[in-house]
């Protein structure tokens, strides 16, 4: 279904606008190398750099050309509309990595339509990786279409995203997943974890209490690639738990999470 707005911009034009915006934003990121933090948002890990601020301003300006509202991590006092369409963007997902000169960070933009993840663009400029959707059923990496290949637990490499402060049960789950698969990584970027799960570099990615701008673009890409997606939203609809990737692996992690009292995942976002 094509998403329409007041300007009657169709899906193809929306993705073109998003690609132009995200690629322009990566040029700003390229201009900062090991950018210093200019602020904190609640913990030593939750930092803001000048690049975050500059990229946020550019994404809002460029994506507004679509005629849809834009909600950025850096103006996150806005509410997420659940009965219309809007862009949700993370100027830099993996800011700690970025500020330390590590390449695992991404610029991300996702289109929500009635609360559902419909379109997405995620670019990791330091890794030369560009992920995006053409529609809800086609995902591409660097211009090449791909579909997720569902593998079993014995073949699974996984990744987890942690908040700054987590209960002991999350560490227990991490150990259980690490011991029952080929391993569980912590890369510092939820968006890249999900995109790598979508392409099959990983077989699952999971996280708890993620902000919607961290994962919106990547979840749209994973959905278009045919991944199993299990979600649980908080009441504010800004925060969610997720598990994405190969069917058997996602169900395995989901079961372990429930046993540890961490989540009661639902299937997909619709």
Shape: globular
What strand order characterises the main sheet?
A: 3-4-5-6-7-8-9
Q: Can you tell me the number of structural domains?
A: 2
> Using DSSP, what is the number of strands?
15
Overall pLDDT metric: 88
Beta-strand percentage range: 25-35%
Q: Outline the low-pLDDT stretches.
A: 1-7
Gap between N and C termini, in Å?
Answer: 14 Å
Q: The CATH topology of the largest domain, please? A: Fructose-1,6-Bisphosphatase, Chain A, domain 1
Query: What is the number of helical segments per DSSP (H or I, 4+ residues)?
Result: 7
Structural class: alpha+beta
Annotated CATH architecture of the largest domain: 2-Layer Sandwich
Proportion in helices: 25-40%
Find the CATH superfamily of the largest domain. Answer: Fructose-1,6-Bisphosphatase, subunit A, domain 1
Secondary-structure element pattern, one letter each: HEEHEEHEEEEEEHEHEHEEHE
Largest sheet: 7 strands, mixed
Rg over C-alpha atoms, rounded to the nearest angstrom: 17 Å
Would you write up a description of this structure?
By secondary structure, this protein is α+β, with helices and mostly antiparallel strands. It folds into 2 domains: 11-146, Fructose-1,6-Bisphosphatase, subunit A, domain 1 (Fructose-1,6-Bisphosphatase, Chain A, domain 1, 2-Layer Sandwich), CATH 3.30.540.10; 153-267, D-Maltodextrin-Binding Protein, domain 2 (3-Layer(aba) Sandwich), CATH 3.40.190. Helix content is 33%, strand content 29%. The chain has helices spanning 11-30, 50-63, 95-99, 168-180, 190-199, 212-224, 247-259; strands at residues 37-40, 47-49, 70-72, 85-93, 106-113, 116-124, 129-135, 138-141, 144-146, 158-161, 184-185, 204-211, 228-233, 239-245, 266-267. The strands form 3 sheets. Strands 3-4-5-6-7-8-9 form a 7-stranded mixed sheet, sandwiched between helices. Strands 11-10-12-14-13-15 form a 6-stranded mixed sheet. A two-stranded antiparallel ribbon has the order 1-2.
